[in-house]
Prior knowledge:
The chain is mainly alpha-helical. It has helices spanning 2-25, 33-36, 44-53, 56-60, 104-113, 128-131, 136-146, 171-178, 193-203, 209-212, 254-263, 276-283, 288-300; strands at residues 79-81, 84-86, 160-161, 230-231, 238-239. Strand 4 and strand 5 form a beta hairpin. The radius of gyration is 21 Å and the shape is globular.
Amino acid sequence: MRLLKRIVGAALVLGAAGAVAGWFLSAPARLDAETLAQLGSGDAARGKRIFYAGGCTSCHAKPGSQGDARLQLAGGLELKTPFGTFVPPNISQDAKDGIGAWSVEDLANAMLKGVSPSGEHFYPAFPYASYARMKPADIADLHAFLKTLPAVAGKTRANSLRFPFNIRRGIGLWKRLYLGDQPVVSFPNGTPDPVMAGRYLVEGPGHCGECHTPRAFTGGTKKSEWLAGATAAEGSGIVPNITSGEGGLSDWSEADIAYYLETGFTPDFDSVGGAMVDVQRNMAELTPGDRAAISAYLKAIPPHPNGYPARKQPSS
Length: 316
């Protein structure tokens, strides 16, 4: 009996120690003073480019919005995933319901660290795991551009997540595995400038890997299969392979990719469809140089076979 008590006591002590360690390891971390000093004053004209490169309208515009209404960032889209339903919030300039009261430091901590002004973790459905690779000055430019957009009143409904995914504190441990500012693909010295510029746009603000890369059961992207295509987060659809591997863009030239991003037309005269419609619409707002850089990067990265399960062929 005495031995059993000792075992139980030791287990309780170890459990308590683990809980305390987990609490500290999962704590939200904000940007340091050195990074904040790199923000600068921000420029709205430059920020417009970052806004479209980051695809802010795709998730935060009212569902079904067209034209200038896409700049009314009231949120409300429902993203139904295996973890539950995420609802992108109002990020308009409404001070009460949106982010109109956010400082540039608040936006930087949200995008680079996934931390809210109140000190809570954001869920990585907000793709800060990619935004973490962005330059602080670009965040300041984006903040300046967002200030030019309209305020829209109205809160979105809350996320609806299953246990244990509804425990935000646990995101801190996830961040230790997947949040970092290092590039995914390394290139040697002397790599052409367009490739390097494309790497920044694709891996950072463009967050292309968030949809086009397979994920582990933990929800983090598999860097070893970068941009190899994946099962869609919503439903059972497929997000295509955009490397030059088999099933990907091996038959596309850089010019083909750039033209597709500008117009939505493939080399086979097919047109963009599905969730990519909104993405392509954003890419069309970029400069020809930006689209060429994205194309150069996609043709320069390691090729991979399709990163999603093979589809069964229909029986005849």
